[in-house]
Amino acid sequence: MTAISLPRALNHRRLLRKLPDYLILIALAAACCYPFYWTLEIAVGNGEQVFDFPPPLWPREAGWQHFIAVWDAIPMGRFFWNSLWISGLTTLGTLIVSSLAAFPLAKLRFRGRQLVFYAILATLLLPSEINFISNFVTITRLGLDDTRLGVVLPSLAGAFGIYLMKHAFEEIPDEIIDAASMDGANDWQVFSRICLPLSLPYLATLGIFTLVWSWNVYVWPSVVLKTPELYPLSVGVLYLKGAFATSTRMVAAGAVLAILPVLAVFIFCQRYFMRGMDGAVK
Amino acid sequence: MTQSSARNAWLFLSPALLLMGVFTFWPLLFGSYVAFTRYDLISPPQWAGLDNFRYLLDDPVFWQAMANSLRYLLVVPLIQLAGIALAVLVNQALPGIKLFRAAFYLPVITTVSVVGIMWNWMYADYGVLNSALHWLGWLAPERDIGFLSDENLALYSVMFVTFWRGIGYYMVLYLAGLQAIPAEMQEAARLDGANSWQRFWKITLPMLKPTILFCSLISTLDALKAFEEVLVMTRGAPLNSTFTALYYAFHQGFNQLDFGRGSAAGLVLTLVCLMLAWLNFKLIRADHR
Asked: Which residue of B has its CA nearest to A258?
C-alpha cells in the first residue's frame, strides 16, 4: 500500500512546488497565443458586434459559415494548391542541393574547400532581402517573372541547409566511408547509399523547416507574382483583406485557414524543430 | 584517386554554387553597380555617379529610416533576456511542458501576413488592447491609444510584434544550449550546497555563453533587417515614422520604381550589417583571450 502511495504523494508535493512555474507558464502562453484565439473567435462568431469587450470566452452563435463563404468567394483552394506547389518544390530542391553541396565539404579532400565553405557561411551575414532588386531583374530576364518557379528558384541554395547537412555528414564515422571505398564504392555511391540514409533525421529536420518557412514566405512571392491565380496562401490572405475590407469575419476565417496546415505539420513534427535548432547552434 | 575526388567535389558543389552565384553573389555585384546608376528596370541602368548617395544624404526619410533601424536594436537585449528566461522555464521535466513549448513557438511558424492582420486588429481603436485599457479604467472612455497611428508610438508597436514573433525562436535556441550542459555539473554544484540561483549564475549562464553570442549576432542582424512587419502593418506610416532602412530600400525600388536609390540604400545597410558583424566577432575574440 505505502509503496504505491508514497511516490504519488511525493509527486503531488513536487507538482505543488512547481505551481508558481505553472502559473507563469500559463500566463505567458495565454498572452502569446491570445491573438490567435481572438482571430478564431472573430471567424466563428456571428454576433452583431465584431469586437466585443471583454471578449466572450466562447463566441456567441458560433458557426462555420464564414469559412465556407471564404472558400467559395475566393480561390482559396487555388491558393492552397499554389502554396503546396511552391513549398513542395522548394523543399525537395533544397534537400537535393544542400546535401549535394554538403557532402564534399564534409567528406572529400580538395583544394579550396575551406574557402568555399566560408564563402557560403558569410552569406548569412548579408541582408539577403537586399537581393530582391537584383533577383527581380534576373528572374525577369529568365522570363520567370509571374511564375511559381521564379518564386522557388532563388531560395534553393542557402547557407543554413548546407551547414546543417555538413554537420550531419560529419557525424558519420570516416571508417564506414573508408571501408566502402575499399570495397570499390565511388563518391556518388558513398553519398547516395551511405551518407544520405544515415542522415535521414537531419534530412527530415531540414525538410520540415524548409516546408514551413516556404509555406509562410510572403515578401518575395508578392514581388514576383502579379496574377492572383498564382498566389500562395500567405499572399492570398492579404489579397483577401483588400477584397473583403468590410467583412472582418471573412478575413479572420481566411487567416485561420492559412495557418491551419502549418499548425498541423508543426504539431506532428515538433521534435524535428527542436532538433534542427540544436544542429544550428553547434 | 585524389584527382577524381577533387573533380567530383566540384561536381557535387556545382548546383549550389551555380544557384548561389546567380541569386546571392551576383546580386551583391550587380546591386553595388546599380547603386551608382539611375535605373527603373525598363531602360538599362545609366551611370549617375554619387547622385543616389547625395539624394539619400539629403532625404530626411532616409535618415529617419536609418535611425529607426538602429532603434530596432532595442529588441536584441530584450529578446535575449526573454528567450533565456523562457528556455529555463520550459527546460524542466514537467507534465505538459511540450505543450507550452509549442505555444511559445506558434508565432514563429505563422506567416507574416496573418501576423499583420491579427496585430492590426489588436492595435486598432476598437481592438482588444484599447478595450482592455478602457475596461480597466486606465484610459478615459472617449480616448484611444493610436498604437499604429501615433507617430511617437507606431515604431515601438511594430517592434513589439517583432519581439512577440521572435521570442519562441530564441527560446528553442537557448533550450538546445541548456540541454547541452552536462547534468552532472548541476548535480555536483547542488551537492556542494549551491542554490538554484547560484547554479544559474555560476554554471548555466557561463556554459550558455556561446549560444548567447550566436543568438546576439543573428538577432542584431535580424533587427537591422527588420521590415516585413512594417510592410504588412504600417507601410512606413504614420508620417514616415515606421520606415526602417530595408523598408526604405524596398519602397524606393518597388513603389517608387527607383532601383538605383533602392540599391544605394541597400548598399549602405549592407555595410552597416558587415560593420556590426565584424564588431561582434571582435567582441567574441576579445572574450576568448
From this structure: B114
- Chain A residues in contact with B30 by the CB 8 A cut-off are 134, 137
Amino acid at B103: A
Q: pLDDT tens across A58-102, in order? A: 666 677 888 888 887 778 888 989 999 999 999 999 999 999 999
C-alpha cell at A5: 502511495
Q: What share of chain A is helix, strand, coil (3-state, %, to 5)?
A: 80, 0, 20
* Interface predicted TM-score of the whole assembly (ipTM), two decimals: 0.85
Q: What is the pLDDT of residues B264-273, one digit of tens each?
A: 999 999 999 8
B28 class by beta-carbon count within 10 Å (0-12 exposed, 13-18 middle, 19+ buried): middle
Nearest chain A residue to B5, by CA? A108
Min Cα–Cα distance to chain A from B192, Å = 22
Which DSSP helix (H) or strand (E) runs through B37? strand B37-38
Distance from the Cα of B13 to chain A's closest Cα (Å) equals 4
Distance CA A275, CA A199 (A): 13
| Ramachandran assignment for A127, one of left (phi > 0), alpha (psi -120 to 50 degrees), beta (any other) | beta
Separation CA B155–CA A113 (nearest Å): 44
Distance between start and end Cα atoms, chain A: 48
- Return the residue of B nearest to A224 by Cα: B254
With an 8 Å Cβ cutoff, are A255 and B249 in contact?
A: no
Q: Do A110 and B5 touch (CB under 8 A)?
A: yes
What is the distance between the alpha carbons of residues A129 and B243, in angstroms, rounded to a whole number? 15
Judged by CB atoms closer than 8 Å, whether chains meet at A32 and B249 is answered as no
> How many CB contacts within 8 angstroms connect chain A with chain B?
266
Please say if the pLDDT value at position B15 is more than 60.
yes
- B206/A98 Cα distance (integer angstroms): 34
Question: What is the residue-wise DSSP string for A188-219?
Answer: HHIIIIIIHHHTHHHHHHHHHHHHHHHHH--H
SS (H, E, C) A211-274: HHHHHHCCHHHHHHCCCHHHCCHHHHHHHHHHHCCCCHHHHHHHHHHHHHHHHHHHHHCHHHHH
Cβ separation of B13 and A101 shorter than 8 Å?
Answer: yes
Cα separation of B273 and B219, whole Å? 11
Q: What are phi and psi of B208, to 5 degrees?
A: -85, -5
- How many angstroms separate the CA of residue B128 from the nearest CA in chain A? 7
Tell me the nearest-neighbour CA distance from A201 into chain B, angstroms.
17
Nearest CA in chain B to A158: B20
